[in-house]
Amino acid sequence: MKPALVISTLSLLVLAACGPATPEEAPAVEYRLVKTETVQSGPAASLIEVAGIGAFRDETRLSFKVGGVIERINVREGETVEKGQRLAALNKQDVNAAVSQASAGFEKAQRDLQRGKLLRDQEVISKVQLDNLETAAQAARAQLSQAQFASQTAEIQAQANGVVLKRFAQTGEVVSPGQPILLLGSKSSGFVMKASLTDKQAVHIQLGAKAEVQFDALPGVKWPGKVIELSQAADPATGTYGVLVEVDTRAHENINLLSGMQGRTRIEPANFNGMRSYVPIEAVVEGDNKAAWIYTVQADNTVKRQTVAVAFIQADRIALIDALPEGTRVVSTGAAYLQDGETVKVQE
């Protein structure tokens, strides 16, 4: 019986070996990995972007109304001052001497006039001579007033709360009337960006237009703003139109903005209403300022190559003339290697 059992076992093994083969697993399909972005809506018109310089809205060059030797300057650049604070003064020795001389001349002219009136009453002098004495008295009064004014204006006082932006002179210097001594920025006047527009830009901007301000020294930091002044006549030298954008410093109260900082402002044009479709510039496979080729992702994760008409380029996005359906996804990374109709795997 044992030999028969061995034969039966071998037969089963042979039959098993001759049975149908186990099917092999098909190799997994590898889809190209891409990143997508949803089409966004944005303004129908392009923002007007120009370079500008930051400044206090009111910056005043302070000077003496009379000439002389500077006796003292009480402030330095960067110091904060209060309204009415004495900032600088001239040496008053010469000024006071001029006041004394003018005062003496005025008193003499008054005495001469009084004596002349008595003599005229006695008909000792003519009316013409009396008129001359009156004229001399008036001239002496004017000289005294001028000397007193010079004495009073031999000092510079702050006209508003502010900060000293620039100091143009030093103690001991001889200065002329009207020569700038200090540059004072008024804090209460606010901070602005001064820029210039071409005529094609200026005609599309209105007072009160919203704006955005950035400074080169502070990349990535943005301030909201609005147009508060717009020139209605071109600068004869440059042919451009000045624009003043008020910077809302409350957006970043901890940042100290300095007069003279360079930056850029983006201003909303008057025809800013309406919406357009925007796609990231990275989504463009080929294109120019008129047309671009992009890939949109379909519901079955296949891609479709589409030609879109370009309205304008705004920063890192392209505005389209014809809107894409809401929710459309475009390939933002990996588009350069795709083919129309290809199935892709979207990276979440």
Report the top-level CATH class of one domain: Mainly Beta
Shape summary: elongated
Give the fraction of residues assigned to helices.
10-25%
Q: Under the CATH scheme, which architecture of one domain would be assigned? A: Beta Barrel
Corresponding CATH superfamily of one domain: Efflux pump adaptor protein, beta barrel domain
Count of DSSP H/I helices: 4
Q: Helix-strand pattern, N to C?
A: HEEEEEEEHHEEEEEHEEEEEEEEEEE
Number of strands: 23
CATH topology of one domain: Elongation Factor Tu (Ef-tu), domain 3
Supply the helix-strand structural class.
Answer: alpha+beta
Low-confidence sequence ranges:
1-17
Could you walk me through the main structural features you see in this protein, from its secondary elements to its overall organization?
The chain is of the alpha+beta class. It is 22% helix and 37% strand. The longest helix is centred in the first third of the chain and has 29 residues, at 93-121.
Give me a quick take on this structure.
The protein is of the alpha+beta class. 22% of the residues lie in helices and 37% in strands. It contains four helices and 23 strands.
